[in-house]
UniProtKB/TrEMBL annotation:
The gene is ychF. GO terms for cellular component: cytoplasm. SUPFAM superfamilies: P-loop containing nucleoside triphosphate hydrolases, TGS-like. ATP binds at residues 11-16. Residues 281-364 form the TGS domain. Keywords: ATP-binding, Magnesium, Metal-binding, Nucleotide-binding. ATPase that binds to both the 70S ribosome and the 50S ribosomal subunit in a nucleotide-independent manner. Its cofactor is Mg(2+). This is Ribosome-binding ATPase YchF. Residues 2-259 form the OBG-type G domain.
Amino acid sequence: GFKCGIVGLPNVGKSTLFNALTRTAAAQAANYPFCTIEPNTGEVAVPDPRLDKIAATAKSKDIIPTRISFVDIAGLVRGASKGEGLGNQFLANIREVDAIVHVLRCFEDDDITHVEGRINPVADAETVETELMLADLESLERRIVQIRKRAQGKDKEAMAALPMMEKALALLQDGKPTRHLLKDIDAEDLRSLKGLNLLTSHPVLYVCNVAESDAAKGNAHTMAVDEMAAAQGARTVVISAAIEAEVAQLPDEDEREFLASMGLDEPGLDKLIRAGYELLHLITYFTAGPKETRAWTIERGTKAPQAAGVIHSDFERGFIRAQTIAYDDFIALGGEVAAKEAGKARDEGKEYVVQDGDILLFRFNT
Ligand code: GDP
């Protein structure tokens, strides 16, 4: 599955947020039996209002949302790149994720020590980013010596790898994270970049953790983070981890009222999960029938056979075609039969690029 790693300095609210996520996941586990929770990994359902509508139209018995994982990556302190704190473990954990959720402390509280002695989320973001860049710089400088030698000796693999390594190294030496390379990157270069296994090439989402009273509107700190993120082309989400921790413990029927009293119309975690999903360039397609309506996750740009493979490898191997109904047509016309009659059920083949919201029925050889 796809994983977002939660990082940030100590005492910014990472664990509080992660625990709220896993408590939500634990509550969901009763309904969705395949939800497994490891100590520092929580798998959560991706909230999607389309599921209820499709299920109502298709008269499905069950609804099964799709999921993504969040990993609590503890141990980042100044000097982590040099092995301070939980440095090495931290670096190993962060390499395994697909995207980074960077939690920034935007709440004042004299009782909770800030490791740097002052609340300044933009400076904190730089501290964390510097550690990650130093770790990348060190690992690249170490590896590139060999690769340059081998490339000079006309080693094909090294010759193929070297250009991306040089580009990444130049960026890091210039004090910039390698995710700058993600802009307008083609599939082949993306593979090369991913192959370098760098910490700063993951896409980043900033989470501003604010006091309960600032959850609806943010504050001066979150505005500063917004400005920084905009300059980087990154997104931000404002959340009060304290509120989320409370919401996660409330019975469902009390949740709306509690949120409304805080000026919120949905849990911050829902916003966070959706933002994480978009950060990973993931989209959703659906399958719908009397038994269940189910959401499936694919990367944007996935073709029909590979999309079928997410359900079962047999579906991909024996793929013939996919009956495709767009979500809007399915809902507006009132389901599969009506959509077919209206000519809105298309038969798509191997080259079809699945679109977000497609309701698919696969035909395949066994
Ligand atoms: P971590 O070290 O980043 O995992 O931070 P924790 O989640 O352990 O939080 C550190 C301390 O800050 C704990 O005592 C939390 O209860 C507190 N904390 C977390 N979020 C908030 C918040 O939004 N407001 C306030 N006042 N305290 C918070």
